[in-house]
Write a structure and sequence with these properties.
By secondary structure, this protein is an alpha/beta fold. The protein has 20 helices and 10 strands.
């Protein structure tokens, strides 16, 4: 029992903390919400006043039968309903505007939190799940923090105000009318906790289905090439079915709960009609009093029913918000804002006794005591069997990860002491499959230097051997490249990526198999552009093709996470070691 009590206490504390944080999201809209709340109180106040007008109207008709009084009373009701409608519209408008502002601010914060995470976080996370949090989870929260709060206040005013009016009119009959409230409150508390847990499962299932869809759509060419459309459709359908089954359970529970509440409410009204009718017959209550009492009872019943529905929505929001807040509160394992700012870099790079394993595979070390030096302006080719750690070295130089042990330094400064953003301004990367954004060619080239002029962009394209095909497009530099650059060929994408690196003008350049996926003609054009780009820069070339290795100042061969041998191409061939075997096996040259 003590364990269950502690668990219940922890859940309540967590819910309360989450609730406070949810409501705090609306704090910047305090002024707007204050005006909206004033409009809400006025419109809700009209709901509490008009039953008295109806009471007066009914009693006047029954006792006097005066038509002039009837006309006056009817006009008064119309005026009250107009006031209620006007201020109700103001309330709905302002609360909705506030909710849109809140969710926009929340999405921006969540997006920046996601972008601020270390690369290892993205290795362990699925893109579809993250986008689902940005889209679906924040939408669940949207109405909760403003519009639903508005509705809750409205119905609370209706329930509390109606109860006060009932007590004023007939305390004994009021006891009958509100006897069901404690039962509703206890039932709602138990149901709400269960619903919150189920709602989180529904959101997780939706995130999984979104991840599957994102993978299939982004990799549609692979899906199509292997004729796996039906298989992907079945995989997605299975995930959707899971979310559907959970949502159906939630819907059934909500339906049963609301039906039970509805039955309790209408039964209470029937009981009030029976008892109140008896009081009218006994001449202890007027017809107008009973009419007003029934209206107030109906108002309370509607308010309690609506509050139960809002409570369900709020429990759903707590489930979704916990997912969002977990991500917003997550601290990156690699600090991106602090550290020394690099003003200039000559390009001396030293890796000393570096050990590293990826966060997703901590039991499989990639680098095991790597020692490597790159002199300023030197071109070093890094070769080795697959899995020897070549691309890992490139990732460490950009400080996508920090080594588990050992030191990586640039110009004598430990990378862990440097501001990562500042460091990356001085390190340029051209990879085997460059990622272009769904924007124009000019915008993609300008990505590393947003303030670059059109002349600078054109000069970068010229240096990257890209100017001919760019000028050949009808829209020139304004040509849209499509998602991930799908409207361009592999060689064209690569040259745009090189132009982007040229414009960035980094002191240290990493070429990660930049020509391995190209045909001979494209490779020739790209290699020319790379040769221009490498001039005067410290360059690390990771390659499998002999043509990109043999002209390097030095070739470093990795094996088992260490340097196996190094020297010039000719010297390593003469040494008859691992490099010569790689040449014979992979490059096809003896």
């Amino acid at each position: 029992r003590d364990g269950r009590s502690d668990w219940s206490s922890d859940v309540c504390s967590s819910d309360l903390s989450t609730t406070r944080r949810l409501l705090s999201l609306a704090r910047p809209e305090a002024g707007l919400l204050a005006v909206a709340t004033t409009a809400l109180l006025i419109s809700s106040g009209m709901s509490l006043v008009y039953p008295q007008a109806i009471k007066w109207l009914v009693d006047t008709i029954v006792t006097d039968g005066d038509a002039s009084v009837l006309n006056y009373a009817a006009m008064a009701l119309v005026v009250m309903f107009i006031v209620q409608a006007v201020f109700g519209a103001i309330r709905a408008w302002l609360f909705t505007v506030a909710s849109e502002r809140v969710v926009a601010r929340l999405r921006n914060r969540l997006f920046m939190s996601i972008l601020g995470q270390e690369i290892g976080f993205f290795d362990m996370s699925r893109t579809g799940e993250l986008t689902n949090r940005l889209a679906s989870d924040t939408t669940v929260l949207q109405n909760t923090v403003t519009v639903n709060v508005s509705m809750a206040l409205r119905y609370i005013v209706g329930a509390v105000g109606g109860t006060i009016m009932l007590l004023w009119m007939s305390p004994r009959l009021t006891v009958v009318a509100i006897a069901v409230v404690p039962i509703i409150a206890v039932s709602a508390a138990v149901y709400g906790r269960w619903l919150r847990s189920l709602s989180r499962k529904v959101q997780d299932a939706l995130a999984l289905s979104t991840s599957i869809a994102e993978e299939a759509i982004s990799g549609v060419r692979t899906v199509r090439a292997f004729a796996r459309e039906e298989a992907e459709g079945e995989r997605y359908a299975a995930a959707v079915e899971t979310s559907y089954q959970l949502a159906a359970r939630r819907a059934l529970a909500m339906g049963i709960f609301q039906s039970v509440l509805g039955f309790a409410g209408f039964s209470t009204i029937a009981l009030v009609v029976w008892w109140g009718g008896s009081l009218v017959i006994e001449d202890r209550m007027s017809v107008g009093d009973l009419t007003a009492f029934l209206i107030y009872t109906g108002l309370i019943a509607v308010s309690l029913g609506a509050l139960s529905g809002l409570y369900s929505d709020f429990m759903r929001a707590i489930g979704a918000s916990q997912r969002v807040f977990e991500l917003m509160d997550r601290n990156s394992d690699l600090e991106t804002e602090s550290g020394e700012i690099l003003q200039s870099v000559s390009g001396d790079v030293v890796l000393s006794d570096v050990h590293f394993a990826y966060p997703t595979r901590t039991d499989a070390p990639v680098l095991q005591g790597l020692d490597l030096t790159l002199g300023a302006g030197e071109v070093v080719a890094l070769v080795g069997p697959s899995g020897s750690g070549k691309s890992t070295v490139a990732a460490l130089l950009s400080r996508f990860y920090d080594p588990n042990s050992g030191v990586i330094s640039i110009d004598g400064r430990d990378l862990t002491s440097l501001n990562p953003k500042s460091l990356r301004h001085h390190v340029g990367v051209v990879s085997q499959e460059p990622i272009l954004f769904a924007a124009s060619i000019a915008e993609n080239i300008r990505y590393g230097k947003p303030d670059a002029t059109q002349d600078e962009v054109r000069a970068a394209a010229l240096a990257a051997n890209a100017i001919d095909f760019v000028d050949g497009f009808p829209e020139g530099f304004d040509t849209l490249v499509g998602e991930r650059g799908v409207r361009l060929s592999g060689g064209q994408k690569q040259r745009i990526a090189i132009a982007r690196a040229v414009l960035k003008d980094p002191a240290i350049l990493v070429l990660d198999e930049a020509t391995s996926a190209l045909d001979s003609e494209s490779e020739h054009l790209v290699q020319e552009a790379l040769d221009r780009l490498m001039e005067g820069r410290t360059t690390l070339v990771i390659a499998h093709r002999l043509s990109t290795v043999r002209d390097a100042d030095r070739v470093v061969v990795l094996a088992d996470g260490k340097v196996a041998e190094q020297g010039t191409h000719d010297a390593l061939i003469d040494a008859d070691g691992l490099y010569k075997k790689l040449v014979e096996r992979q490059f096809g040259a003896a």
